[in-house]
Amino acid sequence: MGRYDLALIGFGGVNRALAELISQRGERLADELGFALRVVAITDLRAGSLVDTDGIDLAPLLAAEPGELSFADLPGGSAETRNENVIREVAADIVVEATFTNPGDGEPALSHVRWALEAGKHVCTTNKGPVAVAGRELKELAERHGVSFEFEGSVLSGTPVLRTARRMFGGLEITGVQGIMNGTSNYVLGRLEEGVELPEAIAQAQELGYAEADPTADIEGHDVQLKAVILANEVLGADLRREDVVCEGISQITPRDAQDALGKGLRWKLVGSATRQADGTVTARVAPVALPAHHPLAGISGPGNAVSFHTDLLGTVTVSGPGAGRTETAYALLSDIIAIHQRHHAHDDTTPVRRALKEAPRG
Ligand SMILES: NC(=O)C1=CN([C@@H]2O[C@H](COP(=O)(O)OP(=O)(O)OC[C@H]3O[C@@H](n4cnc5c(N)ncnc54)[C@H](OP(=O)(O)O)[C@@H]3O)[C@@H](O)[C@H]2O)C=CC1
Ligand SMILES: N[C@@H](CC=O)C(=O)O
User: Fold this and answer.
1) Ligand closest to CA 218
2) What number does the ligand 2 atom closest to the CA of 323 have?
3) Which helix (H) or strand (E) holds 19?
4) Which of 71, 111, 126 for a ligand 1 pocket mutation test, highest count of atoms within 8 Å of Cβ?
5) What is the domain range of residue 281?
6) pLDDT in tens, 339-353
7) Which residue ranges does the record assign to the Aspartate/homoserine dehydrogenase NAD-binding domain (predicted)?
């Protein structure tokens, strides 16, 4: 049985949820997937850094209140974050980047990803900043070093949109994508429809773990701008930057507006889209739209998200599921680790499914 040693960069909602998954169902996952997972390093702005190359005991860390965690007094611990040292020097197979998304220059996460790839380590991340700012460069860097750069959770958290588009739509042309791509704003719009004021609705989304460290990014559409860039570049082969995406958020929508719309059979939604134009260029935008009830995106509620792919052979295909949430997003990281395993050990007959396929009688 193989094993992957992980370095977790950032120990907030998402990476804690990944640690919980590993801690609570590690054995089951190992049986199912054919490899084990072990955490050998954690860094966090507030808690500091912790390294144990024999495997960190996660239980006491997960038992502590997030705000009270401090690594300074633990063996292998330090009050300093020491990101560069940990990422470059600690013997980890996969660096899991889940610090805050910086919609501007993608830092410091962009540097974290670069350091890891340069050190020959696989990276998986839910952080939209590095992918939107420098996705192409980072994929090339990963290729040069013979490792993987995976970022499924950067769009629609655990709902597999990027991998679905890459793996399932071979042989057809995708002409555009349109979707609800932010859980917080969709949750907030739903609360406005119930008469809740914007600040209270945002506070609830923060409490539930949907919102960005600075929820302005969710409400003003900057988070969807990044996701539209990622989808345009990954799915439509564009080379867009955030500044190319026209953006308007939902901060001007009041509970009265949302309720009036509902009375007319309409629902306000924050819609992101990217479209291939007749001249081959790709344009993208983010804007609130009052959708009629029969629209495929109108029924998406709470932190749910959906992306519709417009294709030449299938018409419109819509993928919907959770767009935010700690555990849902941690699952995206697990799916990235599985993708890394499949890419680099596809020849191994280690998983039960592969063994069963190999041993099944033919004819
Ligand atoms: N939550 C969700 O539903 C989703 C989140 N994402 C993305 O995943 C990432 C993580 O999200 P989430 O866990 O919810 O966010 P949190 O804010 O809960 O966690 C981020 C953690 O990273 C720490 N951190 C910040 N800067 C650094 C640094 N330089 N070095 C080490 N640690 C650092 C923060 O410390 P401190 O608190 O002290 O600042 C915090 O503990 C974000 O980029 C987010 O955009 C993507 C999809 C969905
Ligand atoms: N804050 C984001 C988290 C996922 O990207 C959202 O609400 O969708």
Assistant:
1) 2
2) 8
3) helix 13-33
4) 126
5) 162-322
6) 999 999 865 554 444
7) 10-152
207 annotated ligand binder: no
361 is a domain residue = no
Q: Which atom of ligand 1 is nearest to the CA of 99?
A: 22
- CA-proximal residue: ligand 2, atom 1 (nearest): 211
Please answer whether residues 15 and 330 qualify as being in contact, where contact means their C-beta atoms are separated by less than 8 angstroms: yes
Q: Does 95 map to a domain?
A: yes
Is position 269 annotated in a ligand binding site?
no
Q: Is 43 in the pocket of ligand 1 (CB under 6 A)?
A: yes
Phi, psi of 3 (to 5 degrees): -150, 145
Distance 12 CA to ligand 1 centre (A): 5
Tell me the CATH number at 240.
3.30.360.10
* 152 and 19 part of one domain: yes
| Pocket flag, ligand 2, residue 101 (CB < 6 Å) | no
DSSP for 87-108, please give it: HHHS--SEEEE-S---TTT-TT
Q: Give the helix, strand, coil percentages of the chain, each rounded to 5.
A: 40, 20, 35
Radius of gyration of the chain (CA): 21
pLDDT digits (tens, 9 = 90+) for 97-129: 999 999 999 999 999 999 999 999 999 999 999
Domain match, 139 and 286 both: no
Is 185 within a domain? yes
What CATH number did the domain enclosing 112 receive?
3.40.50.720
Instruction: Express each pLDDT in 257-302 by its tens digit.
Output: 999 999 999 999 999 999 999 999 999 999 999 999 999 899 999 9
Q: What is the mean pLDDT of residues 209-233?
A: 97
Ligand 1 in contact with 10 (CB < 6 A)? Answer: yes
Residue bearing the CA closest to ligand 1, atom 28: 45
243, 268: one domain = yes
Whether the model clears a pTM of 0.90, i.e. scores above it, the answer is yes
Q: 7 CB under 6 A from ligand 2?
A: no
Asked if 130 and 39 sit in the same domain, the reply is: yes
- Name the pairing type of β-strands 266-276 and 174-180: antiparallel
Task: Determine the pLDDT at residue 354.
Answer: 41
Please state, for a pLDDT cut of 90, what percent of the chain lies above it: 94
From the CA of 46, the nearest ligand is 1
Q: 183: Cβ–Cβ under 8 A, 6 or more apart, which residues?
A: 157, 205, 210, 302, 303, 304, 305, 322, 323, 324, 325
Shared domain check, 272 and 258: yes
Nearest bound ligand to the CA of residue 103: 1
